[in-house]
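ok new one. same drill as before - structure tokens go in, u give me an amino acid for every spot. 221 of them this time. try not to just spam alanines like last time pls lmao
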């Protein structure tokens, strides 16, 4: 789609020196200190909280990150936090718990948790789970950044160019679009060309893929 890395946040560009962030939410001070030390030693940036409300109120950076989340907390449960973060793929969750029960584990994994670790877990288990979570976060942030670029490009289309684009990506032929909009077929071609140029689509297939990501359909915008 010709979406260059120059449009991506610095933390997502190739060769970025910014460290991924590993958030920790656990009400046990000794657990937080231990995890912070392990995370820092592995080359990531730890950021810990003693309860869920502190974490939820914190303004997170748009950088690759993941969340080490205790199931049992003094305010909200870990599952409550997971539900509140539903749809935020940029912050994958690794659950931690002092005891493991099948229903809780199944619920957490079905809701998208990367891993469910039972304390005390070995360092290697965590060090295997965190990179997987950070990779998910990186992909999600890149998708968000690219979608933002597409929305920006789409905003520069004229109302008529949008009408034409909506129809051609839905499969209408130029003459059908012309009849539908009450314009000439040559005018349709001009608007179609200008729309592809502004969207920086290399081909019609490319334009259709962009429209799908923007959820564009006749009458949608």
């Amino acid at each position: 789609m010709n979406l260059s890395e120059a449009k991506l946040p610095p933390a997502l560009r190739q060769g970025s020196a910014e460290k991924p962030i590993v958030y920790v939410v656990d009400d046990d001070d000794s657990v937080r200190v231990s995890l912070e030390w392990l995370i820092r030693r592995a080359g990531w940036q730890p950021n810990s909280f003693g309860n869920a409300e502190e974490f939820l109120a914190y303004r997170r950076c748009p950088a690759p990150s993941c969340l080490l989340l205790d199931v049992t907390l003094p305010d909200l449960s870990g599952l409550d936090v997971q539900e509140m973060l539903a749809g935020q793929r940029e912050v994958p969750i690794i659950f931690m718990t002092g005891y493991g029960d099948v229903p809780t584990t199944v619920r957490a994994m079905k809701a998208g948790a990367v891993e469910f670790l039972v304390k005390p877990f070995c360092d290697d288990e965590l060090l295997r789970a965190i990179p997987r979570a950070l990779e998910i976060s990186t992909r999600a942030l890149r998708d968000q950044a690219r979608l933002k670029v597409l929305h920006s490009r789409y905003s520069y289309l004229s109302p008529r160019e949008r009408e034409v684009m909506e129809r051609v990506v839905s499969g209408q032929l130029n003459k059908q679009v012309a009849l539908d909009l009450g314009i000439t077929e040559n005018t349709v071609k001009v608007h179609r060309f200008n729309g592809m140029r502004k969207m920086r689509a290399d081909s019609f297939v490319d334009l259709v893929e962009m429209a799908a990501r923007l959820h564009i359909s006749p009458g949608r915008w």
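The longest strand covers residues 65-70. and btw The first helix runs from residue 29 to 41.
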